[in-house]
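Take a careful look at the sequence and tokenised backbone pasted below. I need to know what the token row says about the fold.
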Amino acid sequence: MRDESPLPGGPFNGELVYDVTYGAGESRLLREAAAAGCRTLDGLPMLVAQAERQFAWWIGRPPRPGVMRSAVVQAGGERSVRCT
């Protein structure tokens, strides 16, 4: 669980809070935003998309669908990936 937040305690008066960090566990920012009724999205989808683009750039072809996400899961890095 990550306890740092750029907005400790809010204000959370928008519709969506997107935390582009990708550490283990849900961040304080997302926990507080969800508690205030905001939809939340963590940074893991962005990390996977970046990895897919980098793979394609270095190798010259895209990776198999889902392989980057599977690598994150196997490494134990998947957490509450969602947009709620």
